[in-house]
């Protein structure tokens, strides 16, 4: 009996594989019988538009559809314009191309670009405010880096500096601050996920970025929860310093997104907007520092911890500003942000445990917990209003 | 940074979203990155086999106008401009001239700009259809067969009985009809399909010029037919490309010849859809306008003339100076989307 089963298993598997391969081969060779009814679906997304110098527009496009797309004409502001496309006018599925149009764009004004395919399908892109794309010079690199520092590292450090005041709080005060942190983090998780989904919507359809970012966020949360649970099982508990580290990591990835926003705003010449973003994010991020400091109230942190945490949470803003300013790809940006959202959700779980699982009179839903959570959400929302939205 | 044009715009500079900035950071947003083709291909195999349009590398300033030229061997707007179809001519028992034509409606993909193909409905496989040329009082007999995928008719402008009007006698695919009437009055007319939905049947290519000469004919001249049309290649009820005689910018690349001091007569018909008005402007010269061509005295002396949908005029001019003389719609948008060309005026 068992012998027979051991033979039957591989045999069944073999038949299944042969059947599947056969079916696929048949479908690919003969079609699914819908070919005449279904015209080719052409899709082209614009990854990036650059204005490297006056009189030149460069487009980076990607074919996210099922069929190859052949671009034969370009129209800028309702005028057919000469252009070159490399490596080839025919862009295969998931392939990219670079289109260059020698068009005299006008500083500070809007332009509209239409690429026309062989079948007459049009793909539109808009330049909202035309400005020369900054070239990757050392000075620009430094400027963006400093902005990331102002937006990320400095405010988080300021928030962490509230630790001496927080450490004078009694147990109820600490619960309040921890609950406040949960509120802050819930807001950040939602905000990051919303951003990720919007970028995913811009990425090429064939990449299925919207589905992917949900999976990435969930996998990140589950993975980190499992990691800390196993660590806790091995070592008995998670140190408050480690927990603060997890929070800082999640917030760091979130701040990468903020850096992207600032870097890319400046790269398109929206300098005034960049300034608004900087002011808004700076205030916003001070509250993040408080959130990171909160679990430390239950530990014995040393100064080196604070420096490390500030860099971990704020540093990615510098990286984000560089990425936003020089290279930007909606697909990878959305995946990055989804990782950030997942990581933040995991720390919501961990910090929430600290507050809710404590065996104290009044139970999980004590007044200070509810008030702290609500205030955390309200604070984040209020400071978010300072960011141009 | 949403431009007023973008779909989710409508907010001024103050209403900038952080997302828009991120998008802007994509260095501008792909407003409509995804487009789905609505039934634009007749035969999928065909498109794969089309000759490749070579996209040259640009040198120098580049500029307006399309890249490359249309595929050789297809419809030739240069030949079309001076092709007049007299039909099969015979004499009726009463001594009058009978002109017989065979028109076949066919679905066909046509090239409307270099490398850009449009699924057209055509008379005799081309857009515009043949230019009918006859004399006032001739008997016309047009045998129409529908080999297309939809019902069609031919509706001629001019005097004719109600049952020859191409409105009620819809010709289904596989069907046929014979239009028979006298050419009257003399002038520049047009014919087009009159099946509903009208706009689609016309803009997909079922139209042509219908010239009825006055009994004594017109004065000798170098004559060109210019049918002003446009193509909505993505079916959004707006034209992507504009032209005279179908191919965008054709007469920029292949100017129409003329000679200083020689009479040039232009038969200009406007069949543009979606846009209410069209116009024609000739640079550096003035012309006589014979409105609808129905009188032998000019109505106007000008360098720019306006055309409503279906309006047409005979224009006559003599070039004073040699060189490349531009002509185009004075709607700059139409001009830069393809309705622009040159006369190549040589010394006498």
Structure report:
- The complex is a heterodimer of chains A (389) and B (348).
- Chain A contains ten helices and nine strands.
- Chain A is α+β, with helices and mostly antiparallel strands and 389 residues long.
- In chain A, the strands form two sheets. In chain A, strands 3, 4, 6, 8 and 9 form a five-stranded antiparallel β-sheet that branches. Chain A has a four-stranded antiparallel β-sheet with strand order 1-2-7-5, with no helix packed on it.
- In chain A, a hairpin with a 2-residue loop joins strand 1 (45-53) and strand 2.
- The radius of gyration of chain A is 26 Å and the shape is flat.
- Chain B is mainly β and 348 residues long.
- Chain B is 9% helix and 37% strand.
- Chain B has six helices and 20 strands.
- In chain B, the strands form four sheets. Chain B has a six-stranded mixed β-sheet.
- Residues 1-62 of chain B have low confidence and may be disordered.
- The chains are: A alpha+beta (389), B mainly beta (348).
- At the A-B interface, strand 1, strand 3, strand 4, strand 8 and strand 9 of A face helix 1 and strand 3 of B.
Q: Summarize the main sheet of chain B.
A: 6 strands, mixed
Q: What share of residues of chain A is helical?
A: 55-70%
Task: Give start-end ranges of low-pLDDT stretches of chain B.
Answer: 1-62
Approximate shape of chain B: globular
β-sheet strand percentage of chain A: 5-15%
Order of helices and strands of chain B: HHHEEEEEEEEHEEEHEEEEEEEEHE
Task: Kindly state the number of beta strands of chain B.
Answer: 20
Unreliable stretches of chain A: none
The arrangement of helices and strands of chain A along the chain is HEEEEEEEEEHHHHHHHHH
Number of helices of chain B: 6
Total DSSP E strands of chain A: 9
Strand content of chain B: 35-45%
Helix-and-strand structural type of chain B:
mainly beta
Structural category of chain A: alpha+beta
Strand order of the largest sheet of chain B: 11-10-13-18-15-16
- Specify the number of helices of chain A: 10
On the 0 to 100 scale, the average pLDDT of chain B is 84
Q: How would you characterize the largest beta sheet of chain A? A: 5 strands, antiparallel
What average pLDDT do the residues of chain A reach? 82
The rounded distance between the terminal residues' Cα atoms of chain B is: 57 Å
């Amino acid at each position: 009996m068992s012998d027979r089963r051991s033979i039957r298993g591989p045999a069944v598997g073999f038949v299944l594989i042969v059947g599947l391969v056969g079916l696929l081969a048949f479908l690919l060779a003969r079609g699914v019988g819908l070919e005449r009814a279904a015209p080719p679906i052409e899709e082209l997304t614009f990854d990036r538009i650059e204005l490297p110098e006056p009189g030149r527009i460069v487009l980076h496009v990607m074919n996210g559809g099922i069929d190859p797309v052949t671009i034969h004409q370009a129209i800028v502001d309702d005028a057919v314009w000469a252009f070159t496309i490399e490596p080839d006018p025919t862009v295969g599925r998931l392939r990219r191309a670079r289109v260059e149009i020698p068009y005299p764009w006008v500083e500070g004004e809007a332009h509209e670009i239409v690429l026309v395919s062989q079948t007459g399908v049009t793909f539109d892109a808009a330049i909202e405010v035309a400005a020369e794309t900054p070239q990757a010079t050392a000075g620009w690199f430094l400027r963006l880096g400093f902005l990331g520092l102002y937006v990320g590292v400095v405010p988080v450090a300021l928030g962490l500096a509230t630790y001496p005041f927080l450490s004078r709080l009694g147990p109820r005060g600490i619960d309040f601050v921890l609950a406040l942190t949960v509120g802050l983090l819930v807001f950040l998780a939602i905000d990051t996920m919303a951003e990720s989904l919007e970028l995913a919507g811009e990425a090429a359809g064939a990449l299925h970025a919207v589905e992917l970012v949900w999976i990435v966020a969930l996998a990140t949360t589950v993975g980190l929860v499992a990691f800390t649970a196993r660590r806790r099982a091995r070592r008995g508990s998670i140190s408050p310093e480690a927990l603060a580290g997890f929070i800082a990591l999640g917030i760091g990835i979130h701040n990468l997104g903020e850096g992207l926003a600032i870097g890319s705003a400046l790269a398109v010449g929206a300098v005034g907007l960049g300034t608004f973003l900087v002011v808004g994010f700076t205030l916003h991020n001070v509250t993040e520092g408080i959130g990171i400091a909160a679990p430390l109230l239950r530990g014995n942190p040393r100064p080196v911890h604070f420096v490390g945490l500030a860099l971990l949470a704020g540093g990615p803003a510098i990286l984000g500003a560089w990425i936003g300013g020089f290279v930007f790809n909606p697909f990878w940006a959305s995946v990055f942000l989804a990782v950030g959202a997942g990581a933040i959700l995991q720390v919501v779980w961990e910090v929430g445990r600290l507050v809710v699982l404590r065996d104290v009179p009044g139970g999980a839903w004590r007044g200070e917990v509810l008030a702290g959570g609500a205030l955390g959400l309200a604070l984040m929302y209020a400071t978010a209003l300072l960011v141009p939205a | 940074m949403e431009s007023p044009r973008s779909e989710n715009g409508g907010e001024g500079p103050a209403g900038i979203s952080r997302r828009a900035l991120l998008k802007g950071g994509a260095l501008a947003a792909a407003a409509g990155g995804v487009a789905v083709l609505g039934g634009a291909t007749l035969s999928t195999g065909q498109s794969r086999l089309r000759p490749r349009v070579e996209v040259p590398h640009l040198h120098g300033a580049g500029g307006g106008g399309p890249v490359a030229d249309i595929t050789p061997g297809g419809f030739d707007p240069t030949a079309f401009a001076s092709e007049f179809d007299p039909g099969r001519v015979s004499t009726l028992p009463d001594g009058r001239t009978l002109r017989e034509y065979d028109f076949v409606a066919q679905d066909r993909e046509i090239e409307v700009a270099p490398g850009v193909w449009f699924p057209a409905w055509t008379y005799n496989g081309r857009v515009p259809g043949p230019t009918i040329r006859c004399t006032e009082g001739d008997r016309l007999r047009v045998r129409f067969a529908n080999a297309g995928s939809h019902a069609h008719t031919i509706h001629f402008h001019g005097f004719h009985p109600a049952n020859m009007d191409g409105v009620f006698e819809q010709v289904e695919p596989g069907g046929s009809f014979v239009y028979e009437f006298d050419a009257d009055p003399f002038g520049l007319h047009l014919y087009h399909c009159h099946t509903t939905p009208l706009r689609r049947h016309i803009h997909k290519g079922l139209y042509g010029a219908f010239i009825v000469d006055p009994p004594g004919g017109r004065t000798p001249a170098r004559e060109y037919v210019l049918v002003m049309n446009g193509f909505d290649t993505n079916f959004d009820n707006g034209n992507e490309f504009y032209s005279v005689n179908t191919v965008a910018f054709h007469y920029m690349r292949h100017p129409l010849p003329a000679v200083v001091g020689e009479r040039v007569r232009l038969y200009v018909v406007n069949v543009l859809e979606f846009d209410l008005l069209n116009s024609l402007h000739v640079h550096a010269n003035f012309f006589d306008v014979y409105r609808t061509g129905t009188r032998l005295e000019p109505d106007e002396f000008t360098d720019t003339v306006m055309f409503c949908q279906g309006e047409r005029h005979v224009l006559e001019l003599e070039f004073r100076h040699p060189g490349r003389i531009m002509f185009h719609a004075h709607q700059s948008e139409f001009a830069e989307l393809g309705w622009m060309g040159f006369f190549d005026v040589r010394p006498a």
